[in-house]
């Protein structure tokens, strides 16, 4: 039977997998806040724990750096097995490039525990709201990080999504080691999309230093972005309306 409430009852031990949105407390859902408050221990990537620390200073926190995701998840599961209620946190939604899947994959190696996934506002949605309404029609979300996915497969997904005239939302568009990946991706897209396709990006969504830019695909190719930037490439119908990026759904307007 599907669990109807996340409230921990006496004697119940829980592992919450929490997506807390872009980072600003206003973006936390009530469920996310309640899960964190009910947990004895909060586990997460160092950057995420630094965000949580501000809002929940009384909580015990444990953090690990990038590339320690497996160790982080095992630690969270093992702490639950010791009798503690634990929240493992990530920004955005934990099921979108987050740890929800990994938690389930690893859980089969341990005695059964109660796991609850707490949905969060993923960057595609929070950043889209800042730009206007870029995702009103069909869209694809693609990460440009090749840490876990071969670049050739990423390239194929970009090309197929572009050929299908989907709006494309790019996560992890660049890093120090991948400084030119966005430029390369834009060049692939321009085989199928016009150079003047309306595009945009948002840096530091909901955090200090937030920046939103709307530009063309040709201009986007030479923009400087980072891992905290979410990029939007419109479809053939996307246009600027009152300074915002808008993809029409196709409603008849008299």
Strand sequence of the main sheet, in spatial order?
Answer: 3-2-4-1-5
**What is the share of helical residues?**
25-40%
Category from helices, strands and their pairing: alpha/beta
Tell me, what's the shape?
elongated
What do these coordinates show?
With 254 residues, the protein is an alpha/beta fold. It has helices at 30-38, 46-55, 69-81, 100-107, 123-131, 151-163, 181-189, 217-220, and strands at 14-19, 41-45, 60-64, 86-90, 114-118, 132-133, 139-143, 167-171, 198-203, 211-216, 229-233, 239-241, 244-246. A hairpin with a 2-residue loop joins strand 12 and strand 13. Helix 3 packs across helix 4 (100-107). 39% of the residues are buried.
What secondary-structure arrangement, pairings included, does this model have?
Elements: E1 14-19, H1 30-38, E2 41-45, H2 46-55, E3 60-64, H3 69-81, E4 86-90, H4 100-107, E5 114-118, H5 123-131, E6 132-133, E7 139-143, H6 151-163, E8 167-171, H7 181-189, E9 198-203, E10 211-216, H8 217-220, E11 229-233, E12 239-241, E13 244-246
Parallel strand pairs: 1-4, 1-5, 2-3, 2-4, 6-13, 7-8
Antiparallel strand pairs: 8-11, 9-10, 9-11, 12-13
Helix pairs in contact: 3-4
């Amino acid at each position: 039977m599907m669990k109807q409430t996340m409230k921990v009852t006496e004697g119940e031990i829980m592992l919450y997998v929490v997506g807390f949105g872009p980072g600003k407390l206003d973006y936390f859902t009530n469920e996310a806040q309640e899960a964190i408050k009910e947990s004895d221990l909060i586990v997460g990537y160092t950057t995420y724990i630094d965000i949580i620390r501000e809002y929940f200073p009384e909580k015990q926190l444990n953090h690990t750096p990038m590339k320690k995701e497996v160790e982080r998840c095992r630690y969270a599961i093992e702490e639950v097995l010791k009798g503690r209620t634990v929240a493992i946190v990530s920004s955005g939604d934990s099921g979108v490039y987050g740890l929800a899947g990994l938690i389930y994959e690893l859980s089969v190696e341990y005695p059964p525990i109660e796991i609850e996934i707490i949905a969060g506002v993923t960057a595609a949605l929070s950043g889209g709201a800042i730009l206007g309404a870029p995702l009103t029609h069909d869209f694809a979300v693609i990460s440009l990080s090749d840490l876990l996915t071969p670049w050739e497969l990423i390239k194929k997904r970009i090309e197929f999504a572009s050929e299908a005239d989907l709006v494309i939302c790019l996560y992890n568009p660049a890093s120090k080691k991948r400084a030119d990946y966005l430029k390369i991706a834009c060049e692939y897209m321009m085989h199928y999309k016009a150079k003047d396709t309306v595009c945009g990006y948002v840096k530091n969504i909901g955090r200090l230093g937030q920046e939103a830019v709307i530009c063309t695909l040709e201009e986007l190719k030479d923009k400087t972005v980072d891992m905290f930037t979410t990029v939007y490439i419109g479809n053939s119908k996307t246009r600027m309306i009152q300074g915002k990026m808008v993809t029409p759904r196709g409603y008849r307007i008299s």
